[in-house]
Design a protein that fits this description.
406 residues, alpha/beta, Rossmann fold, formyl-coa transferase, domain 3, six-stranded parallel sheet, three-stranded antiparallel sheet, 18 helices, 13 strands, transferase
Length: 406
């Protein structure tokens, strides 16, 4: 695909919204991905030399391009600009004049140093909304520190409670801190868009990674502050929530069984052939089951080991007990639910031919989310976007000669 190839328009609810993405790695760009999936036009600014480092991240590459990049940069246009040059800063400011949203996740103060702060950009575009994603937020004594997702996960309380109690604090197997900051940032952007209908004005959305993690930590804070209870690592369970765990099967698999609600546990007891288990004081209430979590898990495990995974899933589904296999990707690709909803799709790509990836979520009944193309080649939309912004061929040649664009 070259710069002359027309891009398919989005059909989602954000069709007509223009986003200027100036971040890199995950926290800012994941927000750009979400907005693009929702139909926005996302113009991603990349350094002309190497582009976003995410082009090389991940465990698998094709022709030197990361498969992770194909997902994170989908539905985006790639424009190269060296933001550390006056010419690049001027071009970015010009693009911001027609943007609805700017997304950035540089260290706080960077945009101010480049003359690209919200205060400056909004002089020519009062309705501009700027999402600023950072480790610690734009204010406070830590704001100027480097704040990667891992640090935010630790500071927000997640790392301490993840893992087995016999091991050091663990991490979730994906970049959850960055992704949560992008999700909270996206919610803030959508709220700011709605508010703009009333005021006509934009504003800054300040999404800190540690606060985004903290926002997901349930009752962790009041449990300690009001009752002195520190939640600890608990492996595959949640304390006092029983039975809700992974249980072994006769064919060496593990199933999730979640029967901690009173009515559901009664149905599980019936499926186990022991309906009276739900009648006695030891297990009849949520609180009682929580107090006897370990012994109840042993009973359920003894039951689950009598069946193969498929047979146990069938039995528990017949009894309306929530149960599920622990999916790997190969399970997803063959699963009928995934197929029926097209949860995984194939997307055309110049680098990969086609690439299989997760679809766009959530689903909307009338203006649905879509994946229009995979992550673009570096700078492939530079000329088209800057020409639309008023740069003629001579100006583009000058920028190229100076190394401002690629």
């Amino acid at each position: 695909m070259n710069v002359e190839t027309p891009r398919p328009s989005g059909t989602g609810p954000l069709r007509g919204i223009r986003v200027l993405e100036m971040g890199q790695l995950i926290a800012g760009p994941f927000c750009g991905q979400l907005l693009g999936d929702l139909g926005a036009e996302v113009i991603k600014i990349e350094d002309p030399e190497n582009g976003d480092p995410m082009r090389q991240w991940g465990q698998a590459t094709v022709k030197g391009s990361s498969l992770w990049w194909s997902v994170l940069a989908r539905n985006k246009k790639s424009v190269t600009l060296n933001l550390r040059t006056p010419e690049g800063q001027a071009a970015a400011a010009t693009l911001a004049e027609s943007a609805d949203i700017v997304v950035e996740n540089f260290r706080p103060g960077s945009l101010e140093k480049w003359g690209l702060s919200h205060e400056e950009l909004s002089k020519n575009n009062p309705g501009l909304i700027m999402l600023r994603v950072s480790g610690f937020g734009q204010t406070g004594p830590y704001s100027a520190q480097a704040g990667y997702g891992a640090i935010g996960e630790a500071m927000g309380g997640l790392r301490y409670v993840v893992g087995d109690p016999s091991t050091p604090p663990s991490r979730v197997g994906v970049s959850i801190g960055d992704s949560l900051a992008a999700l909270f940032g996206t919610v803030g952007v959508l709220a700011a868009l709605q508010e703009r209908h009333n005021s006509g004005l934009g504003q800054v959305v300040d999404s800190a990674i540690y606060e985004s993690v903290l926002g997901m930590m349930e009752s962790l804070v009041p449990e300690w502050a009001e009752d002195g209870i520190q939640r600890e690592r608990s492996g595959s369970t949640l304390p006092k929530i029983a039975p809700s765990n992974v249980y072994p099967t006769a064919d060496g698999q593990w199933l999730i069984i979640a029967a901690n609600q009173d009515t559901v546990f009664r149905r599980l007891a019936a499926a186990m052939g022991n309906p009276r288990l739900a009648d006695g004081p030891e297990y009849s209430t949520h609180t009682a089951r929580g107090e006897r979590q370990a012994e109840l898990d042993e009973l359920v495990a003894e039951f689950s080991l009598q069946f193969t995974a498929d047979d146990l899933v069938e039995l528990l589904n017949e009894n309306s007990v929530p149960v599920g296999k622990i999916f790997r990707v190969e399970d997803m690709l063959s699963d009928p639910q995934y197929k029926a909803r097209r949860s995984v799709i194939e997307v055309d790509s110049t680098d990969y031919g086609t690439v299989t990836m997760q679809n766009a979520f959530p689903r909307l009944s009338r203006t649905d989310t879509t994946v229009r193309w995979a992550g673009p080649e570096l700078g492939q939309d530079t000329e088209a976007v800057l020409t639309q912004a008023g740069y003629d061929r001579g100006a583009l040649t000058d920028l190229r000669d100076k190394g401002v664009i690629r």
